[in-house]
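Long-time lurker. I teach an intro course on protein structure, and each term I like to show students one example going from raw sequence to a predicted 3D structure in token notation. This year I'd like something fresh instead of my usual example. Would anyone be willing to generate the tokens for the chain below so I can use it in lecture? Attribution to the forum is fine with me.
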Amino acid sequence: MIPGVGNRRRFSDLSEQQVLALAISSEEDDARIYRQYAQMLRDEFPSSAKVFDEMAVEEDGHRQRLIDLHKRRFGEVIPLIRREHVSGFYARRPVWLVENLGIERIRDEAEAMERDAERFYRTAAARTTDADTRKLLGDLAAAEAGHTYRADSLVDKHLDEDARDDEERASKRQFVLTWVQPGLAGLMDGSVSTLAPIFATAFATQDTWTTFLVGLAASVGAGISMGFTEAASDDGELSGRGSPVKRGFASGIMTTIGGLGHALPYLIADFWTATIIAIIVVFVELWAIVWIQMRFMETPFFRATFQVVLGGALVFAAGVLIGGG
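-- Reply from a regular --
Happy to contribute to a lecture. Here you go:
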């Protein structure tokens, strides 16, 4: 009997039958992971989905050969032993931790899966003195190395240059729609819309703590409002903009950051020192927004400058005039 997670058995204590059972369950898990990757990618990245479909079939084939070997040596009943039962055995990240990180990260994760398995089996084979066990572990390591080469050939088969270009464009577009666009809208709203109340309060009261509290309230309030508005505006099903929760978080967090950038300097007690630093921060924020628009939204420089810098300057001036009036 294999102890649970809280009392794992060392690999060196496993019998040959248990090692074989562990290999079988690992191959089964990896095939399941590849099929999940394929399912996630099928709509947007059909070529990569085919790669993972075939990799899953490869894992099934290796698992079946291992099962056949187990039947010949140990009989029909395969012990229940999984990765989490063995101390030091390589772990797989849950699919939900990887699925939101993009197509390239998923490919890298799959490659790492094969390398981890190969490395573990080779290390284990080098540490055993039993000839049969050593051969078994060496064969498993070779099989995992073969998976890596096979994966490369599958990529070449299904992902020609045009397919890669198409998937890279689709991945970039999805990243922009889900994260950059709502985040940029939030940053612009937080940076620009809070200028007037913060600087109006600053020049009206010349009290840095009061100004900070107004800026904090305006930033957090705007962030909450923008986040819920973005999440409720579009469920992403028809527009393809992605999860409303992700977009809501991106918009809300960036809105809050945009406002806090020029509110935080007012934690400094000296009014003019805080105000000068806040103005510098505003300058940096506005030009950062221009750069993001140019980099990800492909907005022409002069249009971005006119929309952001000129608009921000007018809002800033309005706040100063109102507060100092």
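Some talking points for your students: The chain has two domains: 5-159, 165-324. The CA atoms of residues 201 and 210 lie 8 Å apart.
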